[in-house]
Amino acid sequence: MRSYENLNLISENREPQRSYYIPYDTLEKAIEGNKYDSKYYKLLNGQWDFAYFERDIDVPDIITKWDKIPVPSNWQMHGYDKPYYTNVNYPYPVDPPYVPDDNPCGVYAVDFNLDTQWINRDTYIVFEGVNSCFYLYVNDKYVGHSQGSHLQSEFNISQFVNEGNNKLTVKVLKWCAGSYLEDQDFFRLSGIFRDVYLLSRDKESARDIEITVTNKNIFVSEKDFVIYDGKNKITSLDNPILWNAEKPHLYTVIVKSCSEYIPFKVGMREIGVSGKGELLINGISVKLKGINRHDTHPNLGHYTPYEHMRAELLKMKELNINCIRTSHYPPTPEFFNLCDELGFYVVDETDIEIHGFTSRNTGYEYDIDNEDWICGQKQWKNAFLERVQRMVERDKNHPCIIMWSMGNESGYGSNHDEMIAWTKNRDKSRLAHYEGSGLINDKCGVDVVSRMYTGIEDMEKFAKNNDMRPFFLCEYSHSMGNGPGDVWDYWQKIYQYPKLIGGCVWEWADHTVEVDGVYKYGGDFGEATHDHNFCCDGLVFADRSFKAGSLEVKAAYQYIKTCIEGNKLTVKNLYDFTNLKEYTLLWKIVCDGDVIKSGNLVCDIEPHETKVYELDFILPESCKLGCYLDISLLGKYEVAMEQHALDVNIQSQENYSAGELQFIDEKESIKIIGTNFLYTFNKHYGNFESIVIDGEEKLAAITKLTVWRAPTDNDRNVKHQWCGQNFNKMFSKVYDCRLEGNRIIVEGSLAGISRSPFLRFNNIFTILSNGEIQVEFEGKVKEDCVYLPRLGFEFQIPKKNKRFKYFGMGPSENYIDMCHHSKIGMYESSAKEEYVPYIVPQEHGNHIKTKIIEIVGLKFSTNKEFEFNVSNYASEMLTKAMHTNELKENENTILRIDYKNSGIGSNSCGPELLEQYRLKEKYISFKFSISKL
Ligand code: GAL
Ligand code: MG
User: Fold this and answer.
1) In a designed cystine with 452, which of 198, 429, 475, 882 is the match (CB 3.0 to 4.6 A)?
2) Nearest ligand atom owner, CA of 480
């Protein structure tokens, strides 16, 4: 056994875990809180010497050849070894605590200088994150070792350092026994990936300092301290300003210990659970509008610099997110400083996941009674327990943390009992959470019942059962690729039941690795086992830019709900601690795309309260396309928006002037000749192949009836049924095509290769004398057919006219279940702007509830609604391409006028698409017309 496999040796000489803080040498600096100003803090980040060995046994006593590597970083991001993406499966045999014989090792070295002042005091070194374990040497003397990649390791190196130059050497191993506890679903990356720094300490100064709060008082474990509110000293806390995620007021506590001033940002708040199972923050029932967050950066791997974290937290705020689960390990401690300051409720999760035990035999099974599971093994108890202890002790002073999580997907065993019991005893002010408690029906000490990917119906069952603990979806709405489409429906129920306290969308950002402008995923690095693009499942792209799914979550999480009856607007304030008067509510009456009346309201509405306002507008007698009330809640930016359809009579307008019309019925085609136009209808294939108006060809190829869409990641299960029907290898058959007066009637069917037809249809094309083509589709779908991806006509149009205009749902792409972020209106766009760069190319760019689209001088319109899509990419191309750079533009622009597109859902990991969002009707009729603009 190698020492890093020895469970009795998981660390040596590491300091007992203390709360996170930085000591300062003056009061002023401590109040200011810029750690770089502290004389007692020395950051060692920078370019270090580095030597990489594929096997630790090859590391020589004296290394003569050094490269350079930045610290913090992961060595796989710098050309040593390769990133390895695996989800459940361990990347080596499941033979704990043993790891592969060939264990890569990175040796790091750096020099640092200490002056007399430092030498006269004690010197500590802190590593905020090293994957997977490391051995520390100072001036070539062994100091100690540690494991627990996402936890802090501190060593007292006073007796090893000299005045002047000192040499630090760190030997980092890729694998160790602890790796069995770190089977999180991410790119496996190694090295010193978080800050490394020295602290100069008084020999006798305080080590662990604990601050506890209630909503009345602050308690400090040290005697000598002062409380500040901003820069003002506070002597009494009579009327304290409480902390919550909306108004994260922080006091500063400065502890004086020997010569050190140690600042803490302190938020006063109390966490509780009501008799109804509500989550209470300062007595107020709060819903957790959450996301799961990994440490991830497309170029830096697991290193997420402070400014990067700050920027991403601000993006979360923009999406109305108020809760973060730190999946599945504690982030760097400064992340919590940011959450305290910006206001988030955090579920701090310890660095444990042993998911791969489910697949240690072939198959996938939570056979937790089997003794193989290390969560039930005594010899692993300390390894489990110390991880939760190190997290709690490091992070305990942060007001943002409301729950401690025992890790993720680690089965359930006696070691969990130990962890939960220890945590609850250590900190009674917060809740204890563990997702795996579901495996034993939550018959353990957890304070919340937590599940992942539960469907809406099942969630409702939990809401109604008699376990009065809050129900929390620690993961839901799997946001892989185009999606998620189901978040809105979840929230209608979450608001309905007190006990449903919300949940965390899986997950915040795509965690991929960017190589030459292309985002890579599992398999791109030659991994022996991998999980393809399952790491590309972010609510935001890897660069944190938004997609439609991000905006959909923003809409579901938004803090107002409105409705209109006559002129009466009801506004409900869903904030927990904010009066709506801090925002401006802008309303607009928009008729046929034009604003006919608008106004502003400052709504003085207390949290959770509702008020009714009389809006001053008069609706027109009738309109052409539709009349809507658009609501927008504005702060620094739009924080919420809603649209309500208004009851105005829609007049259909058929006021085309008549013209001359001539039909020439030939063997394979019908020519239709009118004033300034010539259409050619292909009788053999039953559709138009040429539309020439004013001498200009509008079609670049024959029009087709199709059902395929490039499967989204959320279609990954149903796509097997779609492919089973061979929808992607489809034949269109015309049985009969005839001209009757000014109508062309086509009888036909669609069938996948080797399958019987799944759709039989009649298409009637009526050509009016002014050139308008009325398309009427009527079809029957085979009884036992799986729901269709979509159904509609695909027009190929010349690329030259780039811009188009539409009256429909926009501006971002939308689908029947993912449309709450968009509004019906008049918009302009282009095929290029419609493209969405999903990491694995897939269906995108749909618009529902459309009445008109004007493109290439043609107007496609309907009295009802259709869905449309304009793209430079054929569905077949989007289906085939596996990375964005493999996409080749189609020769022509493709316009789809669809009866319907199935919804998006989140079935990449979540429940199946809800019935009501499937295109599953067996009888379909659908009409639209094509005319000259
Ligand atoms: C969950 C797991 C996450 C992630 C997700 C799939 O089961 O907790 O870590 O793997 O599935 O993306
Ligand atoms: Mg997992």
Assistant:
1) 475
2) 1
Q: Which of 328, 475, 477 most suits a substitution to test ligand 1, by most atoms within 8 Å of the C-beta?
A: 475
Q: Around ion ligand 2, which residues have CB less than 5 A away?
A: 185, 355, 409
Which residues partner with 790 through β-bridges? 901
In this prediction, residue 48 has a pLDDT band, given cuts at 50, 70 and 90, of very high
- Identify the active-site residue in 409, 507, 527, 834: 409
Is the Cα torsion angle 546, 552, 556, 560 positive or negative in sign? positive
* pLDDT above 90 for 515: yes
Structure tokens at 157: 């190196």
475 is catalytic: yes
Pocket lining for ligand 1, CB < 6 angstroms = 87, 185, 327-328, 408-409, 452, 475, 506, 534, 537, 909
Model pLDDT, residue 654: 64
Confidence of residue 400 (pLDDT cuts 50, 70, 90): very high
Distance CA 387, CA 404 (A): 12
Taking a C-beta distance cutoff of 8 angstroms, is the pair 200, 157 a contact? no
pLDDT tens digits along 882-928? 999 999 999 999 999 999 999 999 999 999 999 999 999 999 999 99
Asked whether 145 and 173 are in contact (CB, 8 A), the reply is: no
Burial class for 237, CB neighbours closer than 10 Å (0-12, 13-18, 19+) = middle
Closest CA to 703 of 642, 768, 792: 792
Note the pLDDT of residue 658.
67
The answer on pLDDT for 371 being more than 60 is yes
Helix (H, G, I), strand (E, B) or coil at 796: strand
Q: Is the pLDDT of residue 729 over 90?
A: yes
| Least distant ligand from the CA of 506 | 1
Q: Domains, the chain, ranges and CATH? A: 3-201 (2.60.120.260), 211-266 (no CATH), 281-556 (3.20.20.80), 559-650 (2.60.40.10), 662-932 (2.70.98.10)
Strands 893-901 and 790-797, sheet pairing: antiparallel
Q: What is the pLDDT of residue 800?
A: 83
Q: Phi then psi for 457, rounded to 5 degrees?
A: -65, -45
**Looking at residues 738-766, what average pLDDT do you find?**
98
Q: What is the CA radius of gyration of the chain?
A: 32
SS3 sequence of 661-686? EEEEECCCEEEEEECCEEEEEECCCC
pLDDT in tens, 576-601: 999 999 999 999 999 999 999 999 99
What tokens appear for 636 in the block?
């620094």
Mean pLDDT, the chain, rounded, equals: 97
Q: How high is the pLDDT of residue 535?
A: 98
Give the ligand 1 atom nearest the CA of 474: 8
Q: Give the number of residues written for the chain.
A: 933
Which segments of 651-789 are extended strands (E)? 661-665, 669-674, 677-682, 687-693, 696-697, 704-706, 730-740, 743-752, 759-767, 773-781
pTM flag (> 0.85)? yes
Q: Name the residue of 87, 187, 454, 473 to mutate for ligand 1: max ligand atoms within 8 A of Cβ.
A: 87
- Residue 802: what pLDDT? 83
3-state class percentages of the chain: helix first, strand second, coil last, to nearest 5: 15, 40, 45
pLDDT higher than threshold 70 for residue 327: yes
Alpha-carbon gap, residue 575 to 601, rounded angstroms: 17
Residue 365 bears catalytic tag: no
Within 8 A by CB and 6+ apart from 751, the residues are 726, 730, 731, 733, 757, 758, 759
What integer pLDDT is reported at residue 653 of this predicted model? Answer: 67
Q: Which is nearest to 899 in space by CA: 743, 719, 707?
A: 707
